[in-house]
Amino acid sequence: MYLAAVFLPLIGAIIAGVLAFAKHGAEDRGPGLDRAAQWVTSGAMLLAAVAAIFALMDIVSGGNTQAVEIFTWIDSGSLEFSWELRSDTLSIVMVTMVTVVSSMIHVYSIGYMGHDPGIPRFMGYLSLFTFFMLMLVSANNLVQLFFGWEGVGLASYLLIGFWYDRPAANAAAIKAFVVNRVGDFGFALGIFATFMLFDSVSFDTIFGLAGEKAGATMQVFGGEFHALTVICLLLFVGAMGKSAQLGLHTWLPDAMEGPTPVSALIHAATMVTAGVFMVARLSPLFEQSEIALNVVVIVGASTAIFAATIGCVQNDIKRVIAYSTMSQLGYMFFALGVSAYSAGMFHLITHAFFKALLFLGAGSVIHAMSDEQDMRKMGGLYKLIPVTYVLMWIGSLALAGIWPFAGFFSKDIVLEAAFAANTGVGQYAFWLGIVAAFLTAFYSWRLLIMTFHGTSRADEVTLAHVHESPKVMLIPLAVLALGAIFAGFALFTFFVGEAAPEFWGNSLFVLESHKALEDAHHVPLWVKFAPLVVGLAGILLAYVMYMFAPDLPKALASGFARTYRFVLNKWYFDELYDILFVRPAFVLGRGFWKSGDGDLIDGVGPDGIAAAVRDIARRAGAVQSGYLYHYAFAMLLGIAGLVTWFLVVGG
Amino acid sequence: MTQLAFPDLTLALPEIFLAAAAMVLLMLGVFSRESAAARTVSYASILVLLFTIVMVGLVTDGRAVTFGGTFIVDTFAVYMKALVLLSAAAAILMSREYLETNKIFRFEFPVLVVLAALGMLMMISANDLIALYLGIELQSLSLYVIASFQRDSSRSAEAGLKYFVLGALASGLLLYGMSLVYGFSGSTGFDALAKLFHGDAEHGVPLGVTIGIVFIIAGLAFKVSAVPFHMWTPDVYEGAPTPVTALFAVAPKIAAMALFIRIMVGPFGDLSDQWQQVIIFISVASMLLGAFAAINQTNIKRLMAYSSIGNMGYALIGLAAAGHSGDAEISASGVEGMLVYLAIYMFMNIGTFACILLMRRQGRHVEDISALAGLGKSNPALALALGIFMFSMAGIPPLAGFLGKLYVFQAAIRAELFTLAIIGVLASVVAAFYYLRIVKIMYFDAPEEEFDGPVSFEMKSILVVSSIFILFFILLPVPLLDSAAAATASLFN
């Protein structure tokens, strides 16, 4: 079951890849190949999803089982590990989520990408991405995790740049790749450090020894540091890159250049949660380092509020959701940071459903609006695309954390855990989280109102074309909507409620002294209600500003012009990085290219040698005068030289 | 004076046959109808040469001497004679078309080639300084004549004259060296000299012997056209009729190399400290000059002249490695590498010259490299064949030329001649430039007029055989390697 869930997507990807090549040669058979690619990949994904659900049932009923070893990968000295599928609750939960969401997105793509010339390639990339993601979540050692990690990075690069004839898409793809390299560098260093400390990279060994090594130190740049803190911080840099946390987040909004199903799959439901998953997976290490945990909390909470503020002023419908994703990832991280791993994972799962729903809903809107993404050119669409409208409402309600939608349960427990942690950083996270929750509700309804209500601001031609999406797109949306409605309610007991310890088994590790999650169930009543209240307040404010007093936003924007511009420009992160890194890199690169490579290496090397050879060749040819006595003289000179040499040196 | 027994003629049977055959061929030419004489004698000479190969192969394996120890027959001689006879036969086979076009297709040409081949066989079997000289002179005299075979062409006459005068000078050097060696040792026989010098490495030999060896080396270096005794090569190659150049590039080189090997590892084997440095010097100088001077050439025969100078440099690497004092196994690996190199060199050169002989436009032979432009389109098969030969000469794996270089470089490494090997590799990088330039001209330059067709059967078969050998040698190298090893072994016993 487990093997099928992981490898079916790979088979689908390979077949789609072959079809893509086949299509390259035979355009006339294009439509047939397109259909074949869609059915094969979607079919494989649906089967994988079913297999994953069965595997999940197994785990829930039978407890945690051992890993599935495929074959030995590297066996070199003490470095030894295999391709293995870890089968514990954490992995299986992720596998199930990834396959279910991904299969919905595959089906949705049949409709959404129906008119694209590169269908087999697109479907192949999607499946390939899913396979890598599954390798990542099912890894049983750090290197396999890294393999999946880099694999999803590659697939995300390919998918963001799917429309490779658009310069913006290429730029975004490169940006995503490069920014992720920064994170991956940290991750790789983290793996090296782990191997240095534990002499192993497989999870069972590391986790078994983590307690023993809690006090170990290691040398870094001449200083003596707490080893596990160093390792965890390095690994967390990787997580920050992949999960777009503050500092390494700049690629995520730009990644919206990719097709919308890609945004839904990669940048909402799955890939960006890899960082969260990784921290949860490595909970036995993070638990040993108070500093690392605090860093996780601070980064998470800061990202949550930072992204929420930007989300409030964006006008591109996908970018609003993208910032919302960042913000929600921040929630997950600070939950992990206060040792409420299961709460973070809970929010991850519910978020996957409602964020995929929102993205695909936005895709449906964009599809209806003939590829228009600017909300300022929308409005009044609810009568034209009612099903999408309802689905977007469900997604927004879940996102804003309104009872009984999924987000309510998970966001509540996250915030309660932060409060219950009873530490400085916990309080920091809690209060920022509350404000962010308010902003979340606000921008969600801002999006709903600007898109669906009021008078239409679109032009006649676009409006005439507006149509409800086909069933092949709406059915996946409906399935995800079910998840957005019921996932929180249904999973609460298992993930964070009474059944949690049994459900998670030993796949998550929490120190005895870290009781945030336990205490979260006993926080004061106002803490429990605060998220809901601020959520409703946010919704109310959105109605006031965008429905009842439409002039208010403009007045605010001009009244607080500086703040507005600061937020609108995403806190000037891109500009800052441009000055700090991009331009110096260009200058450095140009310097290496022009003077280093061009003048020095080429000048002395290839060009210089070539010139010298030419010169020598000319001289060597010139000796050949054609005169007999020159030749005879040369021979005598030669013999005289050789004899002299012998008399002087050899003799 | 002891009564000399009548010498054992059976050992020299191939040579005696060839000498007799040459005279019969001459008669055949004289008494045939004039119109058919040249053609008849040509094919008859090829048959004679091929039959001689069979005889050479039958005569012996192992080692035997006759004529009072001046004539030796061993596996080494068999190997080298086979190469020489094969290349002489190929040269005659290739010559017909060219000679006909230039109206010099006369029956004396094949007879002279047969006589030259006889001289080369004598050289290979020489076991005495005098025998050596006789062989060289017989060979050279024949070659001087055929170099100027196109009498009415001033270039051909000039080539013959230059070769003759400089050859005489080289012979003088050689004789002078031989007389020095004889004067200081009292013997001309190789076996006697070897016995005399055995163990002399420690306490040194008379200075006269050393200088004598240097002179002998100079004389032989002239024959293999190694730097600084190479100056005649480009002029003669360019001036002589192309089939003659094809012969020059292969058969005399192989014979002279055989002599080089036999005399250096034989009588002077224990004096390797004396001559190894000289060989290294001429090897390095030949490789470098061959690589650099060829770059600016526009005439393909001149280019091949420099190419053969360079190639002789590579072959001499093997001889330098054979000069490794002490370990006979390492010395043997040097000789073995050389033998393999020469065999591969023969195939590459015969093939390349076959291509050059096919460069004909409107009944005239052209020699400019630029004439090859666009051959890839106008005659893909010929371009492919020439491309294979050029890539092989440049030492691109998996072609035979790569393996040839590999073996000599390996021998040099084993003999710890690292500098020599590195210079060799670098020189082959430079040389690759002009080989690959020909490929570039054929495939990437704008096509010129097509060459005259059709390609005759004999040319086709030469091209096919040599390209197949070059392409697929790597798949079945064992027969050649084994015979080279056997030839080497007979030399070191």
Query: Strand order of the main beta sheet of chain A, please?
Result: 1-2
Radius of gyration of chain A, CA atoms, in whole angstroms: 30 Å
**Low-confidence spans of chain A:** none
Characterize the largest beta sheet of chain A: strand count, sense, and whether it forms a barrel.
2 strands, antiparallel
Strand content of chain B: under 5%
* Count of distinct strands of chain B: 4
Rg of chain B, please?
A: 22 Å
Indicate the low-confidence ranges of chain B by residue numbers: none
Mean pLDDT of chain A: 87
Provide the spatial order of strands within the biggest beta sheet of chain B: 1-2
Blueprint of the fold:
The complex is a heterodimer of chains A (651) and B (493).
Chain A: H1 2-25, H2 30-62, E1 68-76, E2 79-85, H3 89-112, H4 119-137, H5 142-160, H6 167-198, H7 203-210, E3 217-220, E4 223-226, H8 227-242, H9 251-254, H10 260-269, H11 274-281, H12 283-286, H13 290-311, H14 317-337, H15 341-368, H16 386-400, H17 406-420, H18 424-452, H19 460-465, H20 471-495, H21 500-504, H22 516-520, H23 525-548, H24 552-559, H25 561-568, H26 573-604, H27 606-623, H28 628-650
Antiparallel strand pairs in A: 1-2, 3-4
Helix pairs in contact in A: 1-2, 1-4, 2-3, 2-4, 3-4, 3-10, 3-15, 3-20, 4-5, 5-6, 6-8, 8-11, 8-13, 10-15, 13-14, 13-18, 14-15, 14-17, 14-18, 15-16, 15-17, 15-20, 16-18, 16-20, 17-18, 17-20, 17-23, 18-23, 24-25, 26-27
Chain B: H1 13-31, H2 34-59, E1 63-66, E2 71-74, H3 75-101, H4 108-125, H5 129-147, H6 154-185, H7 190-197, H8 200-203, H9 207-223, H10 232-239, H11 242-265, H12 272-293, H13 300-322, H14 328-357, E3 360-361, E4 364-365, H15 375-378, H16 380-393, H17 400-414, H18 418-444, H19 457-472, H20 478-492
Antiparallel strand pairs in B: 1-2, 3-4
